[in-house]
Amino acid sequence: MVNSRFDGWHDVVVLMPEQFNDALEAVLAVREQRTVVLNLSRLSPELAQRAADLVSGGILALDGQQQLVSERVLLLAPAGVSINRIPTAEESQS
Fold first, then answer.
1. Residue 26, in any domain of the structure
2. How far is 60 from 27, CA to CA, in rounded Å?
3. Does the pLDDT value for residue 67 go beyond 90?
4. Beta strands 12-15 and 35-39: pairing type?
5. Which of 2, 17, 23, 27 could pair covalently with 58 via S-S, beta carbons 3.0-4.6 A apart?
6. 82 vs 76: CA distance, rounded Å
7. pLDDT 10s digits, 4-59
8. Would residue 58 count as lying in a domain?
9. Does residue 33 lie in a domain region?
């Protein structure tokens, strides 16, 4: 991991774990003030769900933010970063 810092720039990390334990890197990155795009598509559906649950708990413990981007992709951010999702035209009409 790179040294934790906040100097006006914010690091974004893309992770594609191939094993369940690799997903923990996402929580560690958020703890170091990085935003993470976590793509769980390389894991089986069962392991992807377990990894998502593990990461969600870690992000909650860090007071971080999370947003589901697609079925197996999560956006994770530290407490000082807000995630704003712009609704699609279809969602806006409902």
1. yes
2. 10
3. yes
4. parallel
5. 27
6. 10
7. 444 456 789 999 999 999 999 999 999 999 999 999 999 999 999 999 999 999 99
8. yes
9. yes
Residue 83 has which token pair? 């995630």
Angle at 77 between CA 73 and CA 79, to 5 degrees: 150
Q: What is the distance between the alpha carbons of residues 71 and 93, in angstroms, rounded to a whole number?
A: 23
Sign of the torsion formed by the C-alpha atoms of 42, 32, 10 and 50: positive
C-alpha gyration radius of the chain: 14
d(CA 13, CA 36): 5
- What CATH code is carried by the domain that includes residue 17? 3.30.110.150
Domain that holds residue 66: 12-80
The mean-pLDDT minimum among 44-48, 67-71, 75-79, 82-86 falls in 82-86
Domain count, the chain: 1
